[in-house]
Automatic annotation (TrEMBL):
PANTHER family (UniProt xref): ALPHA-L-ARABINOFURANOSIDASE AXHA-2-RELATED (PTHR40631)
Key word Signal present: yes
Biased composition (Low complexity): 334-374, 388-401
Organism: Friedmanniomyces endolithicus
SUPFAM superfamilies assigned to the protein according to its UniProt record, in alphabetical order: Arabinanase/levansucrase/invertase
Job description of the protein: Alpha-L-arabinofuranosidase involved in the hydrolysis of xylan, a major structural heterogeneous polysaccharide found in plant biomass representing the second most abundant polysaccharide in the biosphere, after cellulose.
GO molecular function: alpha-L-arabinofuranosidase activity
Name listed for the protein in its UniProt record: Alpha-L-arabinofuranosidase
Length: 410
């Protein structure tokens, strides 16, 4: 069946002299919550699991995320797993050097894995490794971005990066209704984007809040941006598309009542929020490609809670797109099509992967016991992120005066 379909594709592609097969992203996505329950619970007595970044890795899923331990942020990776149903028992490997709100990818031009994050020594920092499965095998922190964000009350937040053939781009949010962008020649990466950025989208704070992610749409010359917003019911994502990464991002889906992904179009019952996460990519590299023909999203959701924002019981969840546009041949389209199909697709829950060479590294254990305790002696700045609701103003708490790894213990 699969072979037959591939053969048909090859024949039709040859017939019209093009190579790409693609699906348009519907302007009104409909998702299923698959399963309609958290994928995993925190280990090590942690309060929550958050801010997921995911790559396909040698046929398995590799996930990093933030953790909160009694109000204080840290980070973890998960042991490799093949099936989402195995995430519940995958190891959770706390990191000695926290990488909060991480972005994980393979930088193919230099054959190196990169993990970008916030609240390190710079506004955004990165570390590199030859073995991304080793949570504690990352190199020293390097500056990724050292500037501010013009209107952001707490500074730059929630970076992502992505490349085209020429440039590497940084996108980030500010909890301030703006999305920011900076770029550098791809040959200069890994490196710092410097201290200047451009505001590329503005709206109210609630309507462009945080957790921005940018992806290449497979088979098209078109990029997708999703941004987490604060709704009346819960957190949800808006979407925008652009014909190039340096271009204008124009709205695709709408606000809370017609979102890219939110309570209203996911049929989710276990969470009011579809919050900070990652679309499941079809490659692990700097192109951040996703395939709208079979789209899934790993996100953070939560049960109702009266806890402070930092202690909300976030857990990983998965949603699967139910109405991808029909398969088309040709690619290269940069129009913002809103076509949708009534055909429901079944999407495999096993990771699709572009295998890369896994370097051997035996000098670090990849798992920590729950009795592991910090032996760090330097002074840590503990920054508890202020809570946000649609009715909270953002003037009551001072922005952090600097950055540093949060103190953590487990
Ligand atoms: C949790 O944090 C609170 C507030 O900082 C502190 O009073 C309490 O001792 C902490 N509990 C544990 C078990 O660390
Ligand atoms: C687990 O965390 C809770 C909340 O911080 C704390 O009260 C409790 O003492 C912790 N338990 C252990 C075994 O550390
Ligand atoms: C993944 O797990 C689900 C639920 O246990 C199961 O139905 C499915 O067959 C599994 N998929 C694979 C590829 O193993
Ligand atoms: C920004 O970076 C430039 C060098 O790229 C430097 O000259 C300038 O002082 C920096 N500005 C700030 C405010 O750090
Ligand atoms: C925010 O975006 C919505 C949806 O595009 C638009 O209707 C509204 O005018 C925008 N508001 C502001 C303040 O830019
Ligand atoms: C992007 O949008 C701005 C404002 O609407 C417009 O001035 C500019 O020409 C647009 N740029 C491109 C490349 O479309
Ligand atoms: C959260 O509380 C609201 C209001 O009581 C309720 O409608 C909703 O079903 C609850 N959500 C969950 C996930 O329990």
């Amino acid at each position: 069946m699969l072979f037959q379909r591939s053969l048909n594709l090859a024949l039709s592609a040859a017939a019209v002299g093009v190579t790409a097969q693609y699906c348009d992203l519907p302007a009104s996505p409909q998702w299923a919550s698959t399963p309609d329950a958290p994928l995993a619970q925190p280990m090590h007595n942690w309060t929550s699991l958050k801010d997921f970044t995911h790559v396909p890795y040698e046929g398995e899923h590799l996930v990093y995320g933030s953790i909160v331990n009694n109000g204080t942020y840290g980070s973890t990776n998960f042991g490799l797993f093949k099936n989402w149903s195995d995430m519940a028992t995958a190891s959770q490997n706390g990191m000695d050097n926290p990488t909060v709100a991480p972005t994980l990818f393979y930088f193919a031009p230099k054959s190196i894995w990169v993990l970008c994050y916030q609240w390190g020594p710079s506004a955004f920092s990165y570390r590199t490794s030859n073995d991304p499965t080793n949570a504690n095998g990352w190199g020293a922190a390097q500056p990724l971005y050292t500037g501010g964000a013009a209107g952001a009350p707490y500074g730059p937040i929630d970076q992502t990066v992505i490349a085209d053939d020429v440039n590497m781009y940084l996108f980030f949010a500010g909890d301030d209704g703006s999305i920011y962008r900076q770029s550098m020649p791809i040959g200069n990466f890994p490196g710092s984007f410097g201290n200047v950025s451009q505001t590329i989208l503005t709206n109210t704070t609630e309507n462009l809040f945080e957790a921005v992610q940018v992806y290449k749409l497979k088979g098209q010359t078109k990029w997708l941006m999703i941004v987490e917003c604060e709704g009346a019911v819960g957190r949800y994502f808006r979407s925008f598309t652009a014909a190039n990464l340096n271009g204008n991002f124009t709205e695709l889906s709408g606000l809370e009542s017609a979102p890219f992904a939110g309570k209203t179009n996911t049929k989710i019952t276990w969470s009011e929020d579809i919050s900070h996460g990652d679309l499941i990519r079809s490659t692990n590299d700097q192109t951040f490609e996703v395939d709208p023909c079979s789209l899934q999203m790993l996100f953070q959701g939560r049960a109702n809670s009266t806890a402070d924002y930092n202690d909300l019981p976030y857990r990983p969840g998965l949603i699967t797109l139910q109405n991808p546009g029909p398969v088309q041949y040709g690619g290269g389209s940069s129009s913002s099509s809103s076509s949708s199909s009534t055909t429901l697709k079944t999407v495999t829950s096993t990771a699709t992967s572009t295998p890369t060479t896994k370097a051997t590294s035996t000098s670090h254990s990849t798992s920590h016991s729950s009795t592991h305790s910090s032996t760090h002696t330097e002074t840590h700045r503990t920054w508890h992120r202020p809570s946000h609701t649609t009715t909270t103003t953002h003037t009551s708490e001072a922005a952090p005066t600097g950055y540093g790894p949060p103190h953590y213990t487990w």
